[in-house]
Amino acid sequence: IGKKRPQWLMTAELVETILAVIERETEPSVQEALLALALTWQKDAPVELERSTYRLIERSSSPVTLAAKKAIAFSLMGTSNAYSVQVRRDLLALLASGQPEDEFVKLLDIVLAWLITRGEVSEARGVVEKLILGDPAVPFTHFTSVLHELESGDAAVLDKWVVSWLQSESLSLSLALRRGLFAASEGRVFTFDFSQALDVPESDYLFIARKALGTFFSKPLFIASLLVSMMRNATDATLGALESLLFNYSGLRSDYLDEIAANPTDPASKAVQQALQELLKYLEGLGDAHIRELQPSERERQLEHHRRNEQMQNEMVEARKYSILA
Fold first, then answer.
1. What pTM, to 2 d.p., does this model score?
2. What dihedral do alpha carbons 8, 12, 14, 19 form, nearest 10°?
């Protein structure tokens, strides 16, 4: 009597059989059914079958149609934790491929915001980056749910996202930050702990700081707090250069910098004191000279605040039409 073959071997044979069927099948409805089957199987696939089962998903979704991307998106949002980290990343890469149809971007925006709430931020950020840098490019402002989650959620998540894009050499990502973030926020304080960021060496601090100056030019509190966060972890050589950059933010003295300078337990206290002393000398040298501020007026900022809120509300209503929770 022959020995019974292990279940995983029989399943492996079945996967190969279905792969052969997919190679010959061109009917869209059949491909969609096979994709749904493959997505379900992938959730319970043993480790030794994970890659071959994923090939079912790849083949049954090729070419990557709008219907295929919707099926993958719904599967991720329903049971993301049922997939391994690698499979989840591969599925997200499939979603980011092909044409970024407006209808799909609205659905993907909801999926990515949901992933952020689950702590899967780096995966979400990777998809957004790919679409912003793609051709055609998808503006960061189209991800209204992602932006809402970043600006209203954990500050550490947003700060890490900002540092990651500033640290990159991509001008497009810096412009995305400028156009997408803080349009309705004047008082955002940067609170990132650079001592915990092993992937951000001190040699990158000045590069990040100078890009922040250009990106968030009209958000002085955010820039000053970013510089102070770097000062808390910088050595003398970098500290002097950061002090010189901080020197430009005289309007923040009473609201933010004085408090840090007066706190002896703050690692940035001495550096901020030095910057304020240099600032005082500069202001005394100016005397009564009048200098115009290079930023929008309060009225213009309020108008932008109302416009951004109205736009976000409209786009959120539109996005919910494609949500499986609606």
1. 0.77
2. 160
